[in-house]
Design goal:
This protein is of the alpha+beta class. It is about 50% helix and about 15% strand. The strands form four sheets. It has a five-stranded mixed sheet with strand order 8-10-11-13-12, with helices on one face. Strand 3 and strand 4 form a beta hairpin.
Length: about 500
């Protein structure tokens, strides 16, 4: 239980500039260190090989100057001067020495001067190699004919023939300079790349706090950064528009729902308090009933839209006789509005109109179009509607044409937006402005589309397109085809 109550400690965060600069700096240090170590090893190996070859040449020259008499080695008196002159070719230290040994490994000549016991300290017990691996040496045989009379040893420390402290300091300075230059370059690049990101992060913080009026005046040469900044700027603008739209929509919905509630309350209170006569009280109750029905429709529209937007409305796809379905819808709708005596004509060619869709959802769309058309008809004008059915190879079309007052040009691009209602419609009847939005969503769910074809003061025409049924779809769909009247 205690483990469940313990909260994970938040990870310590650092700025993107510090994060990447520090890591690039470590990578630079490791990379340059490896490069320098490899270079020093290669320089050391190459220097030792070259120095040993030079030492071998010196040994050959000394062996040429040594003579023999009765198989005994004789060292010329000017050999010291020769060796001293040749030492200038070497980066010598106190360990550099030249030794001449006979076949019994007895010291004949040395420079600097040493005794026989010093030879033991410098050479191994078998006199074949240096005793200490920190030193290097070469040996050249002194021969006369096929007989070896002795050998010349030229020895020096490996450190003196590779690089000394001055070289190491120079390499360290160069390495440090390269690392600092690399770090400074990476710092400048990281700072340049992180600056727009920091500004975007600050702008995001402002938006989270409710301030949508952010300014991002950045124009870099990097395409990806520009795309990020431009997308974020557009997103901020869109969020601001959505917030303003949400505020206005909420105010509109609240107003539209509050109006019938207030009206019902006033009417009922008037009847309860006997402010009106019994006959007027009945009329008041009828008005209150109509207002409650309007409010019920608005709430139903809002619930239907929310359900569709959340994806919780099931839309079936089955073979449906569209001509028969539209005829049933017209018949039932005319009965519901018999008091207004609307005239609805169905125009369809003598062919079959089978579609793959949901009969109930198609009915909702067409009924909503007919209701909107009836509301758009002027009070003194007779409502005359024409419904046209057309068929193409892949699609079927239902076109609803009315003789109403039409939709204003400035309102036409927005009529399918949720909660949008034109000024004329606001004055004539109350609603939430969700009918066309919901109808278009239903059309999309069935693979179709709902569009405004035309609108003028003489009337408007809406077009519903639905996919046409094919034998292949019938094989994939096992549900029963529509064949009965649809109840309202």
């Amino acid at each position: 239980m205690d483990r469940q109550l313990k909260q994970k400690k938040p990870k310590r965060t650092i700025s993107i500039l510090s994060h990447w600069t520090l890591r690039y700096f470590l990578i630079l240090c490791i990379g340059f260190t490896i490069i320098v170590a490899g270079a020093l090893y290669w320089i050391r190996t190459t220097s030792i090989e070259k120095s040993l070859k030079t030492a071998e040449l010196l040994g050959l020259e000394i062996a040429d100057h040594v003579t023999s008499e009765n198989n005994m080695l004789r060292v010329p008196p000017d050999l010291d001067r020769l060796v001293t002159k040749r030492e200038k070719l070497f980066n010598t230290d106190h360990y550099f020495c030249v030794m001449i040994l006979d076949n019994n490994n007895q010291l004949i000549f040395s420079q600097p001067k040493m005794e026989q016991k010093d030879v033991h300290y410098r050479l191994s017990d078998d006199y074949r190699e240096p005793r200490n691996n920190k030193y290097a040496g070469v040996t050249v045989n002194i021969s006369e004919g096929d007989q070896t009379l002795g050998k010349v040893w030229v020895m020096q420390s490996k450190q003196s023939i590779t690089f000394g402290p001055e070289t190491i300091w120079l390499v360290a300075l160069i390495l440090g300079g390269l690392i600092l230059c690399g770090w400074f370059t990476i710092y400048l690049l990281s700072n340049k790349l992180s600056r727009p990101i920091r500004q975007v992060a600050y702008a995001a913080e402002q938006i989270r706090g409710g301030n949508y009026e952010v300014s991002l005046d950045l124009n870099t040469r990097e395409r990806e950064i520009n795309e990020l900044v431009n997308s974020f700027r557009d997103m901020a603008t869109r969020l601001q528009q959505l917030e303003e739209w949400r505020t206005l929509s909420l105010a509109g919905v609240s107003h539209e729902l509050k109006t019938p509630v207030t009206s019902i309350k006033g009417l009922v209170m008037a009847v309860r308090d006997d402010v009106v006569s019994p006959q007027e009280g009945k009329e008041f109750l009828d008005i209150a009933l109509k207002e409650s029905e309007r409010m019920e429709r608005m709430v139903a529209d809002l619930l239907d839209y929310n359900a569709m937007a959340a994806g919780s409305v099931a839309v079936r796809k089955e073979r449906t006789d569209l001509k028969l379905l539209v005829g049933e819808i017209i018949y039932q709708w005319k009965i519901a509005y018999e008091d207004k005596m609307p005239e609805v004509q169905l125009h369809a060619p003598p062919i079959t109109f089978f579609t793959m869709g949901d009969a109930l959802r198609i009915q909702q769309i067409i009924v909503n179009l007919l209701n909107n058309a009836l509301h758009a008809t002027a009070p003194e004008q007779k409502a005359v509607f024409d419904i046209y059915l057309r068929a193409e190879e892949q699609m079927l079309y239902v076109e609803v044409k009315d003789n109403g007052t039409g939709i204003a040009a400035e309102d036409q691009p927005k009529i399918f937006e949720r909660f949008y209602r034109g000024e004329l419609k606001k004055r004539r009847n109350r609603g939430l402005g969700l009918g066309l939005t919901y109808s278009r969503l239903l059309a999309h769910e069935q693979g179709g589309e709902l569009t405004l074809v035309s609108s003028s003061p003489e009337g408007s025409m809406f077009r519903l397109s639905l996919p046409r049924w094919t034998a292949t779809q019938e094989a994939m769909n096992t549900e029963k085809a529509y064949g009965a009247a649809v109840k309202v």
